[in-house]
Amino acid sequence: IDKEKVLFWFVDPILTKINIWLQRQIAYNNAYKELHSLSDKELSDIGINRYDIHHTVIDTLKQRVPSQSF
User: In whole angstroms, what is the distance from residue 1 CA to residue 7 CA?
Assistant: First the structure.
């Protein structure tokens, strides 16, 4: 058994999951920051309030990538 292949077989899925998690976090943080920077009036104009930002971002990201949970 080639030890490098076994190590790759074991480590690759872990690195892939870490990469997906990081991409999700970056997408969440960017969307959250953008919405949080809006005034209460601007948020109201698009139909959300400051309390809803977290849930709105999560729901939107789930719609974009439905097979992955946030």
Answer: 11
pTM for the whole structure: 0.73
Burial (0-12, 13-18, 19+ Cβ within 10 Å), 2: exposed
Q: Who's near 56: CB < 8 A, 6+ residues apart?
A: 35, 48
pLDDT digits (tens, 9 = 90+) for 19-62: 888 998 999 999 999 999 999 999 999 999 999 999 999 998 88
Give the side-chain half-sphere CA count within 13 A for 46. 13
CA dihedral sign of residues 52, 54, 60, 62: negative
| CA separation for the pair 36, 15 (Å, rounded) | 31
**What token pair was written down for 49?**
């309030």
